[in-house]
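Example S7 (structure tokens).
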């Protein structure tokens, strides 16, 4: 069979060309459609991953109230998407003047990661100042990082090799808490979606940080209230009330007049006098006449606390600061904030602790043991001692600058032998107090007994008198107070109005006797100082005070 003529095929050729051209067009359009759909799918998947990350971070934040653990959880979750080298949180302090870089996280170097830093600088010189000021994310390139005003931050970034920094403000309830900072060793800006992720995370971090700081403050207040409760319970059990200062002798009235002068001020007061003269009671009286009377009166006996624990008692400690520190402890300085701190027996302060105490008194700031965070306090200080601080300064056992800090307004508390007029009132007061506590009824104190008590020199002062009266009430079955006068060694016979020897006379006689035994040799193993159990310099000062000099041979 022969082929058809050639001219019969020409009309079909344009139709076939049109068919092939249309197929290519539809295929190209289909490819573009599939490409756009694939792009949307990838975008949706990426958006889903980011939202999943935000949700995961939100769940992490909801379960963390400790700022450090909160930060570490956020850093670990973000790292898989941001691949950051450095993530920090700068938190504004309460006064808004400085910020503190709380944590540093280096996920690429696990051995160095998660460091707790304490870089403090004025907020205007910190990397996050622009973000704080504008409330918007701020990018710091290499030039701005190298030109940071804060030397501490600049040295940190140079040391860590950080070339660029994103600072996202942490805003909660309209208040800027600080900055979330993401640092990189790369100079170029990061992708826009990562910035949006940081901003979303920053919102959640700000809320969680606000809650964490509130929780931290509540915990500190709870601990402080618990400590104050212990002090208030001790106040209830104290021996006297400040409105029961007994006596109207001229010596006591002079002291009360000085207290009335210095009480309303915030001046430091130094109470000087023998042990047992009621210095703590007078310190309470000063506190109650001040504008701080509504706040806590905190006391610490410096001679009653072991040397290793005294610093912790004064300034507090963090958990794990030393062996046995199983929880955070609030120190007496912090507990006395806006109140009064009474340091009894400051003459027994160890020399190595005195510089820290001096700084706390001068600057009204300190750090807890195991912490670099500075705590500022507003405390009125009252100190007391039975020692001769001036003599201790001369012999080098007490810092002169600390002595001058204490010695702003010294008040000498007279011993009981210098206010004999007050002894009858004190005896009656203690008798009624202990009789009431024991369910006794004592109505009479024999005149001869009272005379014997008045003429006794009372080397132990009011404390000795109080203990004797308590023992007497126990020994008194009837309505008459029976005092065991035989226990008062050398007590004058009833009716004997002759004056008893003063404590200084007894001390002078004893020192002279020891000096004669040692042939006036002061130092050495057989010298007078060793026999008396005191230092040679202390003995020399006592000799000067008592007017004792070596007789001419």
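Recovered sequence:
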């Amino acid at each position: 069979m022969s082929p058809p003529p050639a001219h019969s095929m020409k009309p079909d050729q344009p139709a076939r060309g049109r068919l092939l051209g249309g197929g290519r067009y539809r295929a190209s359009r289909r490819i573009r459609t599939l490409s756009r759909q694939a792009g949307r799918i990838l975008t949706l998947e990426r958006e889903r991953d980011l939202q999943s990350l935000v949700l995961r971070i939100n769940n992490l934040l909801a379960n963390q109230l400790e700022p450090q653990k909160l930060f570490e959880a956020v850093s670990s979750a973000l790292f898989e998407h941001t691949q950051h080298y450095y993530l920090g949180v700068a938190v504004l302090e309460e006064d808004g003047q400085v910020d503190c870089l709380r944590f540093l996280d280096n996920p690429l170097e696990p051995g160095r990661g998660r460091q707790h830093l304490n870089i403090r600088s004025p907020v205007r010189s910190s990397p996050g100042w622009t973000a704080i000021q504008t409330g918007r994310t701020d990018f710091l390139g290499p030039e701005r990082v190298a030109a940071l005003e804060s030397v501490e931050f600049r040295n940190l970034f140079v040391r860590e090799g950080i070339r660029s920094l994103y600072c996202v403000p942490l805003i909660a309830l309209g208040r800027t808490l600080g900055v979330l900072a993401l640092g990189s060793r790369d100079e170029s800006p990061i992708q826009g979606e990562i910035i949006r992720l940081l901003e979303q995370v920053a919102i959640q971090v700000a809320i969680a940080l606000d809650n964490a700081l509130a929780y931290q403050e509540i915990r500190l207040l709870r601990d402080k209230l618990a400590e104050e409760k212990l002090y208030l319970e001790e106040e209830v059990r104290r021996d006297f009330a400040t409105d029961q200062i007994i006596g109207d002798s001229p010596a006591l009235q002079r002291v009360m007049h000085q207290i009335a002068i210095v009480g309303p001020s915030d001046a430091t007061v130094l109470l000087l006098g023998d042990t047992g003269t009621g210095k703590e009671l007078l310190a309470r009286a000063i506190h109650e006449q001040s504008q701080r009377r509504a706040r806590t009166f905190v006391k610490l006996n410096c001679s009653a606390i072991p040397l290793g624990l005294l610093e912790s008692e004064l300034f507090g400690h963090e958990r794990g600061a030393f062996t046995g520190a199983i929880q955070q402890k609030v120190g007496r300085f912090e507990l006395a904030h806006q109140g009064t701190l009474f340091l009894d027996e400051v003459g027994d302060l160890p020399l190595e602790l005195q510089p820290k105490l001096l700084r706390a008194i001068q600057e009204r700031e300190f750090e807890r043991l195991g912490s670099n965070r500075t705590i500022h306090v507003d405390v009125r200080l009252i100190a007391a001692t039975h020692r001769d601080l001036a003599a201790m300064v001369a012999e080098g056992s007490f810092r002169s600058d600390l002595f001058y800090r204490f010695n702003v307004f010294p008040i000498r508390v007279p011993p009981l032998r210098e206010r004999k007029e007050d002894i009858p009132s004190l005896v009656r007061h203690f008798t009624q107090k202990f009789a009431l506590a024991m369910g006794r009824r004592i109505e009479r104190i024999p005149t001869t007994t009272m005379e014997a008590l008045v003429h006794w020199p009372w080397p132990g002062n009011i404390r000795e008198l109080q203990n004797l009266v308590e023992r007497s009430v126990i020994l008194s079955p009837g309505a008459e107070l029976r005092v065991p006068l035989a226990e008062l060694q050398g007590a004058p016979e009833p009716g004997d109005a002759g004056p008893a020897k003063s404590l200084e006379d007894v001390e002078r006689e004893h020192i002279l006797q020891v000096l004669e035994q040692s042939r006036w040799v002061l130092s050495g193993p057989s010298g007078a100082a060793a026999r008396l159990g005191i230092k040679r310099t202390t003995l020399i000062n006592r000799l000067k005070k008592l007017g004792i000099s070596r007789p001419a041979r």
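Notes on this example. The longest helix spans residues 12-62.
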